[in-house]
Amino acid sequence: MKLSIYSLREILFQGNAVSLNCKTMVGEITILDNHETYVGVLTEGLAKIIDEEKKEHFFSIKDGFIQVNKNNEVRCIVSSIE
């Protein structure tokens, strides 16, 4: 899937990913390739990305939004914890 994670200051991640695990208002979720469309509110926690090379990336998130589109694109706009 094409994954983009943006903060107000910078692009935190942009590229192809195998999975994204993060916390939302309704609980922890994992987004995989060809996930159903989804819009949610992110809550404070650690976001874990596994890229297509199986490398793990971690970001501390304060809050934000996630959007999963039907064309296998995932976008997150977050406030990151510094």
Describe this structure in words.
The chain has 82 residues and is mainly beta. It has one domain: F0F1 ATP synthase delta/epsilon subunit, N-terminal (ATP Synthase, domain 1), CATH 2.60.15. Helix content is 0%, strand content 72%. The protein has no helices and seven strands. The protein has strands at residues 2-6, 11-24, 27-32, 38-42, 45-51, 56-69, 73-80. It has a five-stranded mixed beta barrel. The radius of gyration is 11 Å and the shape is globular. The mean pLDDT is 94.
List the helices and strands and how they pair.
Blueprint: E1 2-6, E2 11-24, E3 27-32, E4 38-42, E5 45-51, E6 56-69, E7 73-80
Parallel strand pairs: 1-7
Antiparallel strand pairs: 1-2, 2-3, 2-5, 4-6, 5-6, 6-7
Keywords:
five-stranded mixed β-barrel; mainly beta; 7 strands; ATP Synthase, domain 1; single chain; 82 residues
N- to C-terminal distance? 27 Å
Total DSSP helices: 0
Low-confidence stretches: none
The quaternary structure here is single chain
Short description:
The chain is mainly β. It has strands spanning 2-6, 11-24, 27-32, 38-42, 45-51, 56-69, 73-80. It has a single domain, classed as Sandwich (ATP Synthase, domain 1).
